[in-house]
Amino acid sequence: MSGGHIDFNKTKSFLIDTTKCTGCRGCQVACKQWNQLKAEKTVFFSGEGYQNPPAMSEYTFTRIKFRDYQKHGQNEFAFYKEMCMHCNEPACASVCPVGAFKKTAEGPVVYDEKRCIGCRFCMVACPFGIPKYEWSKAFPLVRKCTGCYSRVKEGLQPACATACPTAITYGNRADMLQEAERRIKSRPDRYFQAIYGKEEAGGTSVLYLTHQPLDELGFKQVTKRPLPSYTWQALRLVPGIFLGVGGTLSAITWFQHRKERIRREEEFKNSRVKPEQKEEDQ
Amino acid sequence: MTAAKLVINEIKGYHRFIQLMIALTGVGALAALARFIFGLGVTTNLNDTYPWGLWISFDVVTSVPLAAGAFTIGVVAHVFHIKKLEPLVRPAIITGFLGYSLVCIGLLLDLGQPQRGINVLLYWNVHSPMFEVSMCIMAYTTVLTLEFLHPVAERFGWHLPLRLLRTLEIPFAILAAMISTLHQSTLGTFFLIAVDKLHNLWYNPLLPLQFWLSSIFTGLSIVIFEASLVHKYMGQPDESDLLATLTKIIPWVMGVYIAVKAYALAFLSHGPLFDRPVLLALFLVEMVIGVFVPFCMYLTNRIRTDKKLQLRAASFVLFGLVLNRFNVSMFGMEQAGQQIYVPSVIESLVTMGIISAHILFFVLIAKYFPIFEHHPEATDYTIPDHFRKLEKGSEGLKAAHEA
Ligand code: SF4
Ligand code: SF4
Ligand code: SF4
Questions:
Q1: Which pLDDT belongs to residue B247?
Q2: CB count, 10 Å around CB of B18?
Q3: What is the pTM of this model?
């Protein structure tokens, strides 16, 4: 679980300006290299437009999504780098029975594969559909973008951010938010007036700026409330309910059995007395 | 004759149906083996879009409430002390014991790293519904195993454990209800995290309460279902008089369930309800055939005496529950336009094997252990303990009264 003591202004965050993305996919390649991920055999146009591979997988932690659209009668592309959002309060971490996911103070949400029992609840819980499973293996683990924690810990930038020539800025979350606000304000015609990730799922360490409305680009519409709070509102009642049920049932048991005991005593008394009286009568 | 021959001869004597169950269980076991050798990806139709499939939806999310008979009847008979229901308790406990053991097996099959299952005990995450359910299922399976030892001890005449178990009967019934309340409801909490995934027809913050309530009336209905079938096919005594008591309790719980569901739908959903025709149809089938129809049946006077109606109402409830759990854990989670998940052959065979194993073991246990013979005429329920005779206590009390 994420500790309550993390200062989300200081966590390292990505600011991804999709209006500056050229679709070179340098980040995709850099990610594969740094994480030593296998290549995937794919065919073109199996996904939408030119995007390839068609979906993220155990071998692909990040991917450029392509969106075709028309502007002034011309065909245009919009790009969007898909990756783990490194949520401030990650759903994946809260549902994991063994706490294999953890939000680090540096920002990345990391996964401890030695703990994972493979229940795949994290995959069901993540609102962005990020964790992927090693379906190819007999004893599979979960794979997802690591936020390049091993690099960030040592003061380096993530591999994809380093490789990106134009669109990715990396730094403290507060600074990234400020920078994003500044860009939106100074170029209102260039930007759609929203920062995706500022409030989504309670705030994330990946922030996006776009030109198109978010849903047109394929951004998922996600609740603004941190996801763990949805389950916690029920789970926090657990100890009380446990003891409450126990106490109530014990009280009922005692009461019901007492009724029975008293009834039996009455019966016993009556049955003892009656025969004696009868004898006297005779 | 060797032991193996004895066993084979014994099996040859079984009914055809039981032999079929043995075969299906065997096939299921082989399919499970295949899953371990070849891995989840090859043997199942699960993928990154459907990380959970038939095994979670049926073997866990549906099987757990189906095994709720043990705790509900335990509370009714022991806590509310409706003693005449005692004969129903033991078969329910056997069903619960088998059900939960098979849930454990189903859960282990579904885990990608089953050998690490023990990690749940090592690394606690109290924020995880899955953690809570795993803990509860482990604890409750232990309780059920101990309760199951009861007929075993009787069968072999172990007096000491029998004394202990009889003394613990009521505490166990209460403990069972405490643990069951938690995990039956927490199975609903599972899906509270799927806030933008589960359709609004089912998603609302009261889902855990609904799961708990439906497990209660289903638990009692399954007791009716089972007792009726056992009477019909296994030549056991007709319990419809006792079942009549249950048919009076069930509509109350169902009524509360309907009220909670209506309230949640009307005031607590946070999005469109009628945008997906298929889901709406599923929802209506679940509510009308699975809840309203049996609710009305339970309300009639005829059901108190009519065996057939009892069985029919119970069957409708079971159908409704199964559909409800599938709606929540599978159908309602499918997004519009997403490819549809259909379980693979191996997944289906394993689940069929689990169901057959349940029936098979139930019949076998009933054959070799005193399960249905637990009647007031035949059995003395008091604790076989000569130091705590009831008369003594009441004599003392009587003396006090007279004084
Ligand atoms: S995007 Fe998904 S996987 Fe990444 S931190 Fe958030 S919940 Fe976890
Ligand atoms: S699959 Fe692994 S990481 Fe994901 S929730 Fe289950 S135990 Fe945790
Ligand atoms: S942060 Fe690292 S792991 Fe994540 S997408 Fe970028 S390169 Fe890949």
A1: 92
A2: 17
A3: 0.89
